[in-house]
What does this fold into?
Amino acid sequence: MKAIRLILPVATLVAAFLATSGISFATKEMGSKEKKPCTTCHEKGKATKEAPLLNEVGKFYKEKKTLEGAPKK
It folds into this structure.
């Protein structure tokens, strides 16, 4: 019974973490270089490796490798 009291909350936290953490297509280098949230370049929704749901800013960044001169959101 004591094991269930420990395992159930831990399993709930792990499940919540996995449910809220999405697939990331940006690299750690991009994130630390630009210091911007993922939603700067990506739309919310179901993304796949082939279609990461880039918005206009993301398409600009993919082409130019910089956010300087990027369209405003």
About this structure: The helical segments are 2-20, 28-34, 56-64. The mean pLDDT is 78. DSSP finds three helices and no strands in the chain. The radius of gyration is 18 Å.
